[in-house]
Amino acid sequence: MGCCFSSDDDETLKRPLLKADPSSIITHYPSPSQLTPEDFKAIKLLGKGSFGKVLLVTKKGTSNYYAMKILKKKVIEKRKQRTHTLNEKKIMEKSNCPFIVQLKYSFQTKDKLYMVMEYMSGGELFFHLKKCGRFTEERARFYVAEILLAFEYLHSHGIIYRDLKPENILLDYDGHIKITDFGLSKLGLSSSNPKAFTFCGTPEYLAPEILKNQGHDKKVDFWSLGALLYEMLSGAPPFYSKNRNEMYKNVLNKQVEMKPHFSNEASDFLLKLLQINPENRLSDMEEIKKHPFFKGLDWDELAHKNYDAPFKPRVSNSTDVRNFDPQFTSEPPEDSCDSTVSQDPLVNKYPDFTYIGHDELYAEE
Asked: How far apart are CA 303 and CA 299, in angstroms?
């Protein structure tokens, strides 16, 4: 669950990531109580990467289940990802969008950081796409529309997501999506600071302006959305090649090939999203919502989740992990961390990391 960590270790990831740029946002939050790993019981391993892992856990004394992301401080420091990790926590903590995964708790020990998020029992979109090969246009349209509402929220708050891919889209019990993993997101963009300049993202979904190192803005998210939609409809990203340099060359020089089974509306929408020149790319949210691909869709009803999802994951109970990769769920889930909080120098680099969401405080009263 959101377990594709920002890393150069390809063996531990489904797809390699490229490093993101550091920014300077470090926030301070009140610490209403001291949490430790002993407050949670590990149920299953959901995923892992070179930074750490994600567990399905329950909070002791409750019937609540969560996804707990456990990150190794030494690895974060070695790879200079501290600010990115704090940014990820801040985005999830502050976001108030039904299509973005919420942070419920966060805390730290001497060696590790813990982010406890809502558990999305439907698993990764990657899992389901791999299982199906490709989706129907109706199903793909539904996912794209909900992703667009997440983008609308993020962009309105000066955030570029920058890492859209099937691994970072999660399904809930009813089949609605939420996006997760904000380690590559760029915060603080504004009219006076409109662009970012770092080469980062996942190769299959990188926009041409990132490859050209020209500086980029929120339009890169719409390119990635086009690449994702193409993959959902065809079974593979639009410019995919096992040779990464060949893939980059394709992105910069080739026009995307439309498949015969794509509808005219889907083909037109894809061509407008996958424009090499960002100035020509469809990226105005109101224009996008009016595109014929979304004909008949009531965006207000969608925002309130009043549409039934075209696919509902099979989930039999709170600990059912059938929608996650058995490569991970078959492994022992235990966390071997020393839960003692100390004045180790690494603790001081993550000041006031403890967080308890308002709804969780209310639930525990």
From this structure: 6
